[in-house]
Every structure is written in structure tokens, then in C-alpha cells.
Design a protein that fits this description.
Two copies of one chain form a homodimer.
Chain A (H helix, E strand, L loop, with lengths): L3 H9 L2 H10 L6 H5 L8 H13 L3 E3 L8 E3 L5 H8 L2 H30 L9
Antiparallel strand pairs in A: 1-2
Helix pairs in contact in A: 1-4
Chain A binds a DNA duplex through α4.
DNA sequence: CATATATATAACCAATTAGTTAATTAACCT
DNA sequence: AGGTTAATTAACTAATTGGTTATATATATG
């Protein structure tokens, strides 16, 4: 992988790894703790590999404590991803606005329909 | 790819595709317009493939207009990615805070050092 | 209809990924 | 020293990715 950002996005493109991040957002955990929810689906070496991907991407840090390897989220590592996302905020918020507008129109129509119905016209056709 | 979010992150994990999104954030463009900056590095079918990845991930939409295929950003498609990122905002902002605190301490120390120097004590040692 | 332009598909290939099992390292505990 | 627990490394495999070239489709135009 050439650039940092691609490496991070690639690391995030896996539900197991995202679940691990979610777990780590609750606090530090060592490898076997992190592995536990996944050992039905995959082996421990697979978990080790996933953690290595997250570590190399700079999204977590792994330290040593006796035979354990406590991992924690590296908040700093999320910054450039977040920053990249910011570039597109306008676009998804715009579409939130559009949704908002759409919902308002729908509601307005429903209200109007309800009103006419109440008034006895009962012609609820749209369009 | 199983889940939507993984598909989106995977789509974003490529600098060519991110560049295409950047281009589309400036406005609609058809395939050959989008391809132009990359034709030194790759063929047109490669570009088509990248666009398909972005389209399947729901990050762009492609329409038809005669023999052209105008593409545009699908703002809506960014929402769930942004939403996922939000879950971690606290963590990267926390580390922004830590940086901020760190910088403030450094600055405070520098100022203090400068002050004592001005007062003629010229003992600028730190720590 | 013939041709040019814009784009997509097919068939293929090399590199990477996500997993496996088996073996290895490291640290602790009697 | 010997055993147990925690984690990693090695060697392998199947599936996916990102690219290729050659071919095909679709639309506009002379």
C-alpha cells in the first residue's frame, strides 16, 4: 500500500477489524481478550494478523506487559481519515437537507390530504 | 464484500478512486473526463473498473446521456461512513486536545525562558 | 448504412488478502 | 528445569484486486 490514507481505509474495510476498534473504544484489551468474540469464526493467528493491520495503519498501538500485549486505540491515527471525510461533509449534509426537504413535502402533503379528508372530500390521490 | 460499510471503506482505500471523488466534488464529469488525468498510468478499462467500484459502493451515481456516462458524487452514500467516523470523534479530538495542551506547555516554558532572559538573568535552562 | 466516439465486457495475469495448521518464542509459575 | 499461558511466525492456499489487451456495444453523424 503506498499512502497512509489508503492503508487506513483498507484497514477499516473489514467488519472484524471495525469490531475490534469498537471493543477498544471501551478501553484497553490484550490480544486474547480481543480475540474472544471471534474464536468461533477464526483462529488466533488470524486475529493477530488483523491486529497487525490495524497497528500498521496507525489506528491502534500495542505495548508489552509480561506475556500480554495490551492494545489501545490510537485516537491520533483517526485524524487524517476524519480530515479527509470533512472534505465531503458538504455533500452528505446537502443530501440530508434534501431528505429533510423531502420529508417536509411529504408531511405537508399528508397534512393537506388529511385536512381535505376531514373536510369530507376524501379524495386522497397524490400526483 | 459482505456489508455496505466495508464496501465503502474498500472503495476509499485507493488513491485513484479518491482522486476521482475529488474531481467529482467539483461537479459532474463523464468517464473520459474522469479518466484523463490517469491515462498516463492506466488504461481506460482500468478507469471503468474503478468507477464501477465507486458506483457499487454507492459513492457515485452514473447516468446515461447519449454515448456519455455522466457521473456525480452521491452525497447520500457518504453518510454512513461519516456516521461511523463520528463514533470515534471523541478519540481523535481527545488527542487533538492533548496536542493542544502539549503545545501550550511548550509555549509557556518558552515564554518563561524568554522573560528571565530579558530580565538579565540569562539562565535559559529548561527542566 | 458506415464510421467515429464513448464506454463496457471478456479473458487473462500478478500481487495481495484473509484464512488455515504447525511450530516457535516469551514470560510466568512451581 | 519443566510446564503453562500468551502471542507470533512460517508455510501454505483460495479468493479478491487492479491491472492488461482485445473485443463488443451503443449512440451520433456523414
Amino acid at each position: 500500500m503506498p499512502d497512509v490514507l489508503s492503508e487506513k481505509f483498507a484497514a477499516l474495510a473489514d467488519p472484524t477489524r471495525r469490531a475490534m476498534l469498537a471493543r477498544l473504544s471501551q478501553g484497553e484489551a490484550n490480544v486474547s481478550e480481543l480475540a474472544k468474540p471471534f474464536l468461533r469464526d477464526m483462529s488466533l493467528p488470524a486475529v493477530t494478523k488483523h491486529l497487525k493491520v490495524l497497528e500498521r495503519a496507525g489506528l491502534i498501538t500495542k505495548t508489552r506487559e509480561a506475556q500480554w500485549r495490551p492494545c489501545k486505540l490510537n485516537g491520533d491515527g483517526f485524524k487524517d481519515v476524519a480530515e479527509w471525510m470533512e472534505l465531503y461533509r458538504a455533500y452528505w449534509e446537502e443530501s440530508l437537507d434534501r431528505l429533510d426537504v423531502y420529508l417536509k413535502t411529504v408531511m405537508a402533503k399528508k397534512k393537506a390530504a388529511a385536512k381535505t379528508t376531514v373536510k369530507g372530500k376524501k379524495d386522497g390521490r397524490q400526483k
